[in-house]
Amino acid sequence: MSYELWVILTGALVASSCSFIGCWLILRRMAMLGDAISHTALPGIVIAFLISHSLDSWAMLIGAAVFGLLTTFLVQTLHQSGVQSDAAIGVTFTSLFAVGVVLVSVYARDVHIDLAHVLYGEIAYVPWNQLVVGGVELGPRAVWMVGGTFLLSLAVIGLLYKEFKITSFDPALAAALGLPVTLLHYILMTLVSMTTVSAFESVGAILVVAMLIVPGATAYLLTDRLGIMLGMSCIIGIVTAVIGYYAAVLLNASIAGAMTTTAGTLFLLAFLFSPSHGVVMKWRAKRRLAN
Q1: C-beta separation of 215 from 263 below 8 A
Q2: How far apart are CA 203 and CA 120, in angstroms?
Q3: Which tens digits make up the pLDDT trace of 176-210?
Q4: Region 142-168: what's the mean pLDDT?
Q5: Measured distance CA(141)–CA(132) in Å, rounded
Q6: Model pTM?
Q7: How far apart are CA 32 and CA 25, in angstroms?
Q8: DSSP string, the chain
Q9: Which end of the chain is more exposed for a tag (fewer CB within 10 A), N or C?
Q10: What residue intervals traverse the membrane (predicted)?
């Protein structure tokens, strides 16, 4: 497969996996949790290096995933203790990220674990980081990591779709029906953590956070049905990746930046022209009623 197709495939997988799981964050009013996880993974990465003395991606992934889960646990604990959810995310995000910065400056200043390397990966380099098994190159490592995480998310949410749906829309009713609301929350947050940390090292935190939020928010404006919203968000993510890549080539600009800008443009179009929620369409409906 050519360099161009690998980059587009990676972007499409990141967009699909992030937008699919991001829809649930939007419904639960926790959209910025992905941003928090992408930064609080830093201390986990440093600790994984200090334990393993290796920059292997799998060790980094495990360390980042552990701290991603710790982030969701702390946010949930603070929220249940009476702290507003956005304040809980902000406190946890800044505190753990600061711990990571201190760990890097004290224990890993001579190692290539700088903030740019950890948090702002470049999707253009993905095709050169190959997964090699038995001397055979099987494709970019990011494709396997993100694709595997996406398949896991599809499987888990497919099995527990009704449970996730009711706990997202009415957790009180779910608790009254005897559903394990807290357990389901942590299962979903585990998927969010895995999705985030499997993607951000390769494609960058900015693109991951954008794909967690923007395609889902765009789909939310276009439909009132959850199943359609999930599928539409993935389609919007893929379209964003394709258009963003060719826009970056045309403008000789950052690929991740072009993809994020494309996602924002699609959201703006939905915000203005959505049949049911668009500003322009509501204005036209009011004018018809007035006349």
Answers
A1: yes
A2: 7
A3: 988 898 888 888 888 888 888 777 766 777 788 88
A4: 91
A5: 9
A6: 0.83
A7: 8
A8: --HHHHHHHHHHHHHHHHHHHHHHHHHTT-TTHHHHHHHHHHHHHHHHHHHH----HHHHHHHHHHHHHHHHHHHHHHHHTT--HHHHHHHHHHHHHHHHHHHHHHHSTTTT--HHHHH---GGGGGGSEEEETTEEEEEHHHHHHHHHHHHHHHHHHHTHHHHHHHHH-HHHHHHTT--HHHHHHHHHHHHHHHHHHHHHHH-HHHHHHHHHHHHHHHHHH-S-HHHHHHHHHHHHHHHHHHHHHHHHHHT--HHHHHHHHHHHHHHHHHHH-TTT-HHHHHHHHHHHH-
A9: C
A10: 6-27, 32-51, 57-75, 87-108, 142-161, 173-197, 203-222, 229-248, 254-274
Query: Diameter of the chain by CA atoms?
Result: 73
* Residue written as token pair 């600009």: 253
Structure tokens at 162: 């009704």
Mean pLDDT of 208-232: 91
HSE of 210, CA atoms in CB hemisphere, 13 A: 25
Token code pair at residue 260:
């994020």
Taking the CA atoms of 138, 141, 143 and 146 in sequence, report the sign of the dihedral they define. Answer: positive
Helix pair angle (255-273, 3-27), 10° resolution: 50
Rounded Cα distance between 140 and 147, Å, is 11
Asked if 234 and 20 touch (Cβ cutoff 8 Å), the reply is yes
Residue 288 has pLDDT above 90, yes or no: no
- Rounded CA gap, 165 and 226, in Å? 8
